[in-house]
Amino acid sequence: GSHPQYEFIQVTEPRPGVGQITLNRPKSLNALSTPLITELNTALSSLQSSPTTRTILLTGSPRAFAAGADIKEMAPLTFSSAYLTSFIESWSNLTHTLKKPLIAAVSGHALGGGCELALMADILYCTKTANFGQPEIKLGTIPGAGGSQRLTRAVGKAKAMELILTGKSFSGEEAEKWGVAARSFGSWEELMEESLKTAETIAGYSKVAVQAAKEVVNKSQELGLRDGVEFERRVFHALFGSEDQKEGMGAFAEKRRAEWKDR
Ligand code: CAA
């Protein structure tokens, strides 16, 4: 059901094991104000600790995933106030401590902080007409929630420089072509249906294996190849200590469906 404690987001469980967070500040195209980010942090950590949630889906409206950090909130900030309150730092908590897979379903605008939030997801799906971009340069500033780092890793330096220095937006179709999005879809309905299907697929696997898979892929973004492969092997070895590895391989041999125990 819906959680009345939230003003700017909605939290639902559209399918078993799937927790959905819908950004819901329609009058400002889901601009990511500090109160909204606080709610998002609360919702993500409560879904992380919920024993029934296995996958998390983050979305907005057909018109806007999120049109960025809240410009009206930022306009009067000074260096000292931003520095002393560590403005935007709490955004890093959103995904750094999240161990369950996060799928972002993006339709409409995903600009500035909205693009950066989408880039934090483990799997990004979008509509072909989604409008991504880092327009901060037009406001006399720069991306502040990881855009210069994550977008550059996703599209390479040449394209990232062009996008961040010109502030030009790119479509969901381009996002897919450039490897920013895993897939793009022709309509909102198709986007949501396919996002839920993927969320359900992942929710159907062993929690232990899913968490390990996410962890090792994320390590590839931090480590060199040799250390990354080493890390992967350590985790792979560790999974021989799980009951679900015995169950998964046993079920294969016995030609039956695996029944995961999350152990
Ligand atoms: N912050 C605060 N309010 C915003 C907003 C934002 N990022 N984006 C849109 N809104 C508000 C508008 O001010 C408007 O409010 P009012 O009705 O009170 O005037 C309402 O949302 C609807 O927006 P528009 O009338 O502009 O709608 P549109 O369809 O004509 O244009 C848009 C849509 C192209 C997305 C346009 O709203 C826009 O350019 N928004 C700003 C995008 C942007 O620059 N984002 C980057 C922010 S900086 C940042 O995110 C820093 C960081 O890295 C963390």
Describe the structure.
With 263 residues, the chain is α/β, with parallel strands linked by helices. It has two domains: 9-203, 2-enoyl-CoA Hydratase, Chain A, domain 1 (Alpha-Beta Complex); 207-253, Lyase 2-enoyl-coa Hydratase, Chain  A, domain 2 (Orthogonal Bundle), CATH 1.10.12.10. It contains twelve helices and ten strands. It has helices at residues 34-49, 71-74, 79-84, 89-96, 113-120, 147-155, 157-166, 172-177, 188-203, 207-219, 225-239, 243-253; strands spanning 9-15, 18-23, 55-59, 64-66, 102-106, 109-111, 123-127, 131-133, 170-171, 183-185. The strands form two sheets. The protein has a six-stranded mixed sheet with strand order 1-2-3-5-7-10, sandwiched between helices. It has a four-stranded mixed sheet with strand order 4-6-8-9. Helix 1 (34-49) links the parallel strand 2 (18-23) and strand 3 (55-59). The longest helix has 16 residues, at 34-49. It is globular and about 65 Å long. Bound molecules: acetoacetyl-coenzyme A (CAA). Residues 28-29, 31, 67-72, 88, 109, 111-113, 116, 135-136, 139, 143-145, 147 line the site of acetoacetyl-coenzyme A. Keywords: Fatty acid metabolism, Lipid metabolism, Lyase. It is an enzyme of class 4 (lyase). InterPro entries: ClpP/crotonase-like_dom_sf (IPR029045), Enoyl-CoA_hyd/isom_CS (IPR018376), Enoyl-CoA_hydra/iso (IPR001753), Enoyl-CoA_hydra_C (IPR014748).
